[in-house]
Design goal:
Layout lengths: L7 E5 L4 H12 L3 E6 L2 H11 L4 E5 L5 H14 L5 E4 L14 H29 L2 E6 L12 H19 L4 E8 L10 H11 L10 H12 L10 E4 L7
Parallel strand pairs: 1-2, 1-4, 2-3, 4-5, 5-6, 6-7
Helix pairs in contact: 1-7, 3-4, 4-5
């Protein structure tokens, strides 16, 4: 039997990259998926590829509270109460701390951190109607170790918020966990000069390679499914051994 049969999932930032990989695997495993993103063209194309019976694209600003309410309402109208939320949307500015403006910093905070808070609040009521649910917050290895200012701060915050929300929502049958990927071979980074830098860095990863998006999706699938029914408030690392060094 498919591992997500009968479940309704919302995945943010899912028009491309890791989010699209999550959506494709979820549908393959029987879920009905609401794909959200600001990229309307790619998001709508992915939803069409997955089929109208399986997927719905909703253009969403994840920093808008009303936007979140609209997404949940559309999910319930199309597929029913929400069982799974994957807070995948995120950005990073790879700037030296003294070159990072307050506007830059707050943009990262709002998209990477505030959106997770808003998403958790928005789906809780729907998950109660569904009889429980699973929230998967995509953090990063930079939620465990240092990296770029702004990005690291917010990914640590997501890790902490995950634990706090897990305690709050456990009585409602809602589990909350965080995923901490290492370097992922998404189209955005595997091109041009950046590709060469990533390939050079991969030599220092214990497994000697970067991850494919599908490898992270398998972990997200596990946390979304009932197979992880006793896991909540925890962080799950998939980094090829980087943080073990």
């Amino acid at each position: 039997m498919s591992r997500l049969q009968g479940k309704v999932a919302i995945i943010t930032g899912a028009a491309q990259g890791m989010g699209a990989s999550h959506a494709q695997l979820f549908v393959k495993e029987g879920a009905k998926v609401v794909i959200t993103d600001l990229n309307e063209e790619k998001g709508a194309a992915l939803a069409a590829e997955l089929g109208a019976d399986n997927a719905l694209f909703v253009k969403q600003d994840v920093t808008s509270e009303q936007g979140w309410a609209d997404v949940v309402a559309q999910a319930e109208e199309k597929f029913g109460p929400v069982n799974v939320l994957v807070n995948n949307a995120g950005i990073s500015f790879n700037k030296f701390v003294l070159d990072l403006s307050l506007d830059d910093y707050m943009k990262i905070v709002n998209i990477n951190q505030v959106s997770v808070f808003l998403g958790i609040k928005a789906v809780a009521g729907s998950m109660q109607k569904a009889g429980g649910g699973s929230i998967v917050n995509i953090s990063s290895i930079n939620g465990l170790v240092g990296g770029a200012v702004g990005y690291t701060d917010t990914k640590f915050a997501v890790r902490g918020m995950t634990k706090a929300a897990a305690l709050n929502l456990a009585p409602m049958g809602i589990r909350v966990n965080s995923v901490h990927p290492g370097v992922i071979a998404t189209p955005m980074i595997m091109q041009g000069d950046q590709k060469e830098a990533i390939e050079a860095f991969a030599k220092h990863i214990p497994l000697k390679r970067v991850s494919q998006p599908e490898e992270i999706s398998q972990l997200v699938l596990f946390l979304a499914s009932d197979e992880s029914s006793y896991s909540t408030g925890s962080e799950f690392v998939a980094d090829g051994g980087i943080t073990a060094q």
